[in-house]
Write a structure and sequence with these properties.
With about 200 residues, the chain is mainly β. The protein has one domain (about 5-200): Jelly Rolls, CATH 2.60.120. The protein contains two helices and 13 strands; from the N terminus they run E-E-H-E-E-E-H-E-E-E-E-E-E-E-E. A seven-stranded antiparallel sheet has the order 1-2-11-8-13-6-3, covered by helices on one side. A hairpin with a 2-residue loop joins strand 4 and strand 5 (about 70). The chain starts with a strand and ends with a strand. The mean pLDDT is about 95.
């Protein structure tokens, strides 16, 4: 299945994961998250909580607390190592990313008014590797711009099973989730959207 270029360095695959594949991937992720439960990070400095809940899979996990953003090998609440990244996600990365294997899969859970403001993924050393994002559950309005916060942005609605990859000139593009559309999918028990973001961290 060919991807659609939505901006320089930004590719979109509609329903890259079929409905059956989405169900299997969700079951796999939920089973792993039992050992690394969702928690609500806080913003550096202010300590204000995120509107999304988060966890990680892989050898490294991205965390945020009052002291800043960083990657670490253990869950900040349980202090246990993160579970491994599911095989289906590793297969996806190896198919489309053309880069060394990812070390982190950030798992974001959006419910109700949860959103993610415009930001850059810039805490990684391996900026030559792209970022690969998988949507599961409710539809979301994804927005991406350029490498300056002042650059124009474009928005695209993402549905369950969609995959977005950005790299090259868009690797440090500002991006975010403006809103989700509650009830647009019945995939996730209790509703909501799970976003799986694969990143290579070390150089």
């Amino acid at each position: 299945m060919n991807g659609l270029a939505i901006a320089p360095g930004v590719m979109l695959w509609r329903e890259k994961f079929s409905k059956d594949e989405q169900t299997a991937l969700l079951q796999d992720v939920r089973a792993r998250i039992e050992a690394a439960p969702f928690y609500r990070p806080v913003m550096p400095g202010s300590g204000n909580p995120f509107s999304v809940e988060e966890s990680n899979l892989g050898t490294l996990g991205w965390v945020s607390d009052k002291s800043g953003y960083r990657y670490q090998v253990t869950h900040p609440v349980t202090d246990a190592p993160w579970p491994a990244i599911p095989d289906a996600l590793m297969t996806l990365w190896r198919e489309i990313a053309n880069a060394p294997d990812p070390e982190c899969c950030l798992v974001n859970l959006y419910r109700g008014p949860a959103r993610m403001g415009l930001h850059q993924d810039k805490d990684e050393q391996a900026l030559s590797a792209p970022v690969v994002s998988v949507s599961l559950g409710d539809e979301a309005l994804f927005r991406i711009g350029g490498t300056s916060r002042k650059d124009p942005t474009r928005s695209v609605k993402l549905s369950s099973g969609d995959v977005v990859m950005f790299g090259g000139p868009a690797r440090l593009a500002y991006h975010g989730i403006d809103r989700i559309y509650p009830g647009s999918s019945s995939l996730i028990p209790g509703g909501g959207r799970i976003n799986l973001t694969l990143r290579r961290v070390t150089g």
